[in-house]
Amino acid sequence: MGVICDGFNEFPDVVRMQGRVMVQSKASEGFFCSMDFSRISLRPFKLSDVDEFLKWGGDDRVTRYLRWNTITSKEQALRYIEKVAMPHPWRRSICFDDRSIGYVSIKPESGDNKCRAYASYAVAAEYWGQGIVTVAMKMAMSRVFKEFPDLVRLEALVEVDNKGSQRVLEKVGFLKEGLLRKYGYCKGEIRDMFVYSFLATDQIL
């Protein structure tokens, strides 16, 4: 806020400032940086993503709320990409300049429940707080209802203390429906979860 306020002080006739969104991240070590969202894309995982995937998939901070455990070796990372990420019906790498920095997953159900799918996501810790997951989720939401014509409802389950993930969902238009007590098993514990939903008829924010 100080930078903006100083600008108004130095130019008293200015009533409006316009420009890129400025964000402050840990990666910038306290300095403000501008995120160019045109450099963000979603694509299927490739085996060549293994080194980048290991960087964030091997970070306990990133995997804290994920069902899968922290990746501990390049071999394990390669196996995960080959056996889990690539065969998945809709798991996309969040890429910055085509370099994998996270993922978005939309997992549709089958049979009579094919109207529903579950959303999950994560991004490398160095990119937290920069709006990247929000942009990636909007990209995913704009595609999956077209790619899965029977899909009516997206759901996301978020742990009660995962405030960052809750903010992402609310920013893109998900509705918090309620609390599921002792619902989700993660990292050896059964935890309370909030359930969020987004319908095909809802508006992406």
Q: What is the helix fraction of residues, given as a range?
A: 25-40%
Give the biggest sheet: 7 strands, mixed
What overall geometry do the principal axes of the alpha carbons give?
globular
State the total count of DSSP E strands: 9
Secondary-structure element sequence?
HEEEHHHEEEHEHEE
The residue ranges in which pLDDT falls below 50 over 5 or more consecutive positions are 1-33
* Structural domain count: 1
What is the mean predicted local confidence, pLDDT? 87
Quote the beta fraction.
25-35%
Would you tell me the structural class of the helices and strands? alpha+beta
CATH class reads Alpha Beta
What integer value in Å does the Rg equal?
Answer: 19 Å
What is the count of DSSP helices, taking H or I runs of 4+ residues? 6
GO molecular function: acyltransferase activity, transferring groups other than amino-acyl groups
Organism: Rhamnella rubrinervis
Protein name: N-acetyltransferase domain-containing protein
Domain N-acetyltransferase: 40-201
